[in-house]
Amino acid sequence: MAGATRGFFGRRRERDPRLPPGQYDARDEWPVLNAEATPRLDTARWTFTVEGLVERETTWTWDEIHALPPARYEGDIHCVTTWSKFGMRFDGVSVDTLLDAAGVLPTATHVIGVAHTGYTTNLPLADVTGGKAWVVWDVDGRPLTREHGGPARLLVPHLYFWKSAKWVSGLRLLDHDEPGFWERNGYHDRGDPWTEQRYQGD
Ligand SMILES: Nc1nc2c(c(=O)[nH]1)N[C@H]1C(S)=C(S)[C@@H](COP(=O)(O)O)O[C@H]1N2
Ligand SMILES: [Mo]
Description:
mainly beta, Sulfite Oxidase, Chain A, domain 2, six-stranded mixed sheet, five-stranded mixed sheet, 4 helices, disordered N terminus, binds ligand MTE, binds molybdenum atom
């Protein structure tokens, strides 16, 4: 068999430089992964809150968050279960805009992304500032479906996708690290796909 197919596979495909180690290109597929049941959130009652170590705890309604300066991420996403997707376009608002409005206190070092469902994920403050993280409601020009975290999700695309909390309800600023849901259940604390920080100890 190997002999018969050698010619067919003779030209080795170059590995796509956008693909981190151990990942594959999911192409048209976008797998849905949640630990909890998919909630139905009404945008009329939806809120997003920045709280904890901030000068002023700040809450935005759906209309208020849409009135902030828009921001877009165009690029790739990587799930720890080994799928990656290239060239996604997400629209929403930069986390910088939200944190600036609340005024992060100098003692803050970490954030917890919190979902309306109770899901949490922890991040160093430096991983959500400087244009690296967003709260998004559109993907490729369409509203995020409920399955993918609609009406809005966190997006931290330089880290594995479990950091991108679906149905996000806010960010909590802390002066210490505190593992979130998956981080307490064996996933790596930070989750850099380029160094394969998949599980605790990686
Ligand atoms: N609220 C919530 N957000 C979540 C999760 C979850 O279980 N609950 N799973 C994470 C994981 S492990 C991944 S890979 C992505 C999956 O997003 P998707 O279903 O849109 O592909 O969401 C992340 N955000
Ligand atoms: Mo994941």
